[in-house]
User: Which sequence fits this backbone?
């Protein structure tokens, strides 16, 4: 069973953001699945690397969109992305030290963070972009 299911309340109405969010949900589920199937360090590392890279790319997409349209709360939003990135980096370091089991904690943390971020922080820019005609 998937760790996180896509919900309609996650949608922001901005196509590129929603597509990337769905992909992120998929990647978190993929990581969880690999952990559940007791995959080895190398496979887990590949999935983790892909997830980190995609999250980075996604945050850049959001921040560039907010920046180019003059979104007033960009700085606060960026801080949330930065905090998450730093936290994930800590997990990655522990994983690289051979602590594979840490990834279950990471997957659960990402599930909660992502759901909360999509439901609260990302929803704050939804009406702003709607008004600007971004979809
Ligand atoms: Fe965001």
Assistant:
């Amino acid at each position: 069973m998937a760790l996180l299911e896509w919900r309609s309340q996650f949608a922001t109405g901005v196509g590129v953001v929603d597509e990337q969010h769905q992909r992120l949900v998929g990647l978190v589920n993929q990581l969880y699945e690999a952990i559940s199937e007791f995959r080895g360090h190398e496979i887990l590392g590949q999935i983790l690397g892909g997830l980190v890279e995609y999250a980075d790319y996604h945050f850049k997409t959001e921040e560039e969109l907010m920046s180019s349209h003059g979104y007033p709360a960009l700085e606060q939003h960026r801080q949330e992305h930065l905090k998450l990135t730093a936290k994930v980096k800590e997990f990655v370091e522990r994983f690289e030290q051979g602590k594979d089991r840490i990834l279950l904690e990471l997957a659960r943390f990402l599930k909660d963070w992502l759901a909360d971020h999509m439901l609260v922080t990302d929803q704050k820019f939804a009406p702003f972009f709607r008004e600007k005609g971004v979809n």
Summary: The pocket of fe (ii) ion is lined by residues 62, 77, 81, 117, 121-122 (CB under 6 Å). DSSP finds four helices and no strands in the chain. Residues 13-125 form a domain with the Four Helix Bundle (Hemerythrin (Met), subunit A) fold (CATH 1.20.120.50). The first helix runs from residue 15 to 36.
